[in-house]
Specification:
9 strands, 6-stranded antiparallel sheet, disordered C terminus, about 40% helix, 2 domains, alpha+beta
Length: about 260
C-alpha cells in the first residue's frame, strides 16, 4: 500500500510546489483513494486476498474480500468480508464446512515530524477465537506492523528517484515535516511544510535519454518504418537531447553568476 499511497502524495507535492512558493501545502488523501490503494496492494486475485488456497481451490480455501473504508471521529475503520471452505471431494462433489464473518480494523492515524503511522489498533472478529479468527488476526497484525510507520521523506525520495528517467529534470525532496494530521469525512488531511529542488539532467543523462527515445520509437530494434519516417523520428530524439543539454548548460551558467 505504501507505494500506491506515496505515488498519490508525490503528485500532490509536485502540484503544491508549482502552485505555491511558500513551501507549505494541505494535502487530502480521500477515503476512496486510500481504499483503492488497499485494494491494489492486497486484493489482487479476483478482488480477493487469499489466506489459504487460490481461485482454483474448490474445497479448501479462505480469503478476505470487499474492503470498505470509513471514518468516524479521529479513527479510520476498514471492514472486510471473510469466507472459507474446509472440505473434500466425495462422490463427485465438494463436501465440507463453510465459514464467513465480517472483519473490522479500526485505528487512529498520527503524525510525528516526518513520520506517519497508526496507533490504538483494534481488530474486531465478532468475539470469535477459533482457528479462522486466529489466522485472520495473525495476518492483520503482521501487515499492520509492516506498514504501520511510514517515513515520508525516505519513501517519497525513492519514488522520485525511480521515475527520474521519465523526466527532463531531476526532482528531489530536501525537507518535509507534517505539522498537522486530521481525519475528516473527506479522508486524511495533512498540513505539510516541505521544500523541493529541481535540476536539469546532466549531458550524460541527456545522451541516455536520447538512446532510450530511439529504442522506444523503434520498438527496441532497428527502425522498420519507411526511411523518411525513421529519419524524422531520429531527428525528434536528437532535438529532445539537444534541448536537454541546453537546459543543463543554462543551469551551469546560472550557477556561476
Amino acid at each position: 500500500m505504501k507505494r500506491h499511497m506515496l505515488s498519490i502524495a508525490v503528485i500532490a507535492l509536485m502540484a503544491a510546489a508549482i502552485a505555491t512558493a511558500a513551501g507549505a501545502a494541505e494535502i487530502t488523501l480521500s477515503l476512496n483513494a486510500i481504499e483503492r490503494a488497499i485494494r491494489a496492494e492486497y486484493f489482487t486475485v479476483n478482488s480477493r486476498h487469499y489466506l489459504v488456497g487460490s481461485p482454483e481451490s474448490e474445497c479448501l480455501y479462505s480469503f478476505l474480500e470487499q474492503p470498505r473504508l470509513s471514518a468516524s471521529g479521529s479513527r479510520l475503520r476498514l471492514d472486510m468480508q471473510f469466507r472459507a471452505m474446509i472440505g473434500t471431494f466425495a462422490l463427485g462433489d465438494c463436501r465440507g464446512v463453510t465459514d464467513d464473518m465480517i472483519v473490522s480494523v479500526t485505528l487512529t492515524p498520527y503524525a510525528d515530524g516526518s513520520v506517519v503511522g497508526a496507533r490504538d489498533v483494534q481488530i474486531d472478529l465478532g468475539g470469535r477465537d477459533d482457528e479462522s479468527a486466529r489466522m485472520i488476526r495473525e495476518f492483520l497484525q503482521q501487515e499492520i506492523i509492516r506498514a504501520g510507520r511510514i517515513d515520508l521523506p525516505q519513501e517519497i525520495r525513492s519514488v522520485l528517484h525511480a521515475n527520474r528517467s521519465d523526466l527532463a529534470f531531476a526532482l528531489d525532496l530536501t525537507s518535509l515535516r507534517v505539522t498537522k494530521l486530521d481525519v475528516t469525512s473527506r479522508g486524511l488531511v495533512l498540513d505539510i511544510d516541505f521544500s523541493l529542488a529541481a535540476s536539469s539532467l546532466q549531458p550524460a543523462a541527456c545522451s541516455q535519454q536520447f538512446a532510450a527515445c530511439r529504442r522506444q520509437l523503434s520498438g527496441g530494434s532497428r527502425c522498420k518504418l519507411p526511411a523518411a519516417r525513421c529519419r524524422l523520428q531520429a531527428a525528434s530524439c536528437r532535438l529532445q537531447a539537444a534541448s536537454c543539454r541546453l537546459r543543463s548548460g543554462l543551469d551551469e551558467i546560472s550557477g556561476m553568476t
